[in-house]
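For reproducibility, we list the full input for the acetyl coenzyme *A complex.
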Amino acid sequence: MSYAKISQVAHYVPDQVITNNDLAQIMDTSDEWIASRTGIRERRISQSQQTSDLATEVAKQLLIKSHLGAEELDFILVATITPDSMMPSTAARVQANIGASRSFAFDITAACSGFIFALSTAEKMISSGVYKRGLVIGAEVLSKVIDWQDRRTAVLFGDGAGGVLIEASDQKHFLLESLQTDGGRGQALTSSYQGLASPFSAKEDSHLSIEMDGRAVFEFAIRDVVATIKKTLSDADFTAGEIDYFLLHQANNRMLEKMVRKLCVDREKLPANMMWYGNTSAASVPILLSECIAEGKITLGSGQKLLLAGFGGGLTWGILLLTI
Ligand code: ACO
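The corresponding predicted structure, in tokenized form, follows.
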């Protein structure tokens, strides 16, 4: 039986910092409104880099940190809702950029759950025994799909990328998971894809911006996601207190505070960084994991128990329980 483990982590964010006060210069909002409702104080915005550029920076760091050559990778998965193009995939662009000549590569689209879904997929590919090693990266340039006239959504999002090297292991690290989708509630959070009108069909209005029923999404996170976290813990025979860290999607600090109360855990067990990056969708969990490791909270190879959770558009939500 093969098992899989996370053996390296990395993240990369664009240099340009946009504060809440910067946003207040271009729309009717304020630092006070944004910070009090979401916890977000600033975000990174790419000037000219595309999603594949951010993901490539992460891939290069992962190779350097793990002393691996690109040709030693079997696959590259990129989770994103802001691909440079539909074809080639962002993952294929990363594969070319780093020269991973033996890798196959493809994108996964599951919005803010994308990294969790991709990591689960990679774990199955390694556990099959067919593949030994790959990169799983969440990367977004959400600034390019935000409607900058819409203060209800523009203040929430940011750009960034994070990822992991996943490799075969002789010990079990991925303990339990729960991946969920409720497409029936998909209209609560949408980002349209701009298509060209066909001469054979009625032209439909198309646009690229994110639209959201904020309250519905908030309720979904604190009700459905918390219920699935509790069920996953109970199925694994764990109490919440036995988990060292809950690395949850970084959408909103008020959301995390409600989750802390419902899960009855110490706030320190739910690290947060949305203050500095906003909501980076598929990149949020791997950026947080990478920062927690850089800060020494989490140590690779330590056996600490982590619960990773992504949730958002689809609606999708995914929980992974693992030891690091
Ligand atoms: N600045 C100032 N005022 C604003 C802003 C802004 N940026 N945005 C909205 N407002 C105003 C509204 O126009 C409204 O004014 P009105 O009462 O005069 O009409 C008022 O603030 C209240 O608006 P609501 O939308 O009711 O505000 P709410 O308290 O629900 O907070 C928020 C909105 C922060 C988006 C909240 O619903 C939320 O956190 N939802 C979760 C959604 C989320 O995080 N989505 C991220 C993507 S999904 C995911 O990643 C899980």
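The chain has a mean pLDDT of 95. The radius of gyration is 19 Å. Both points were considered when choosing residues for closer inspection.
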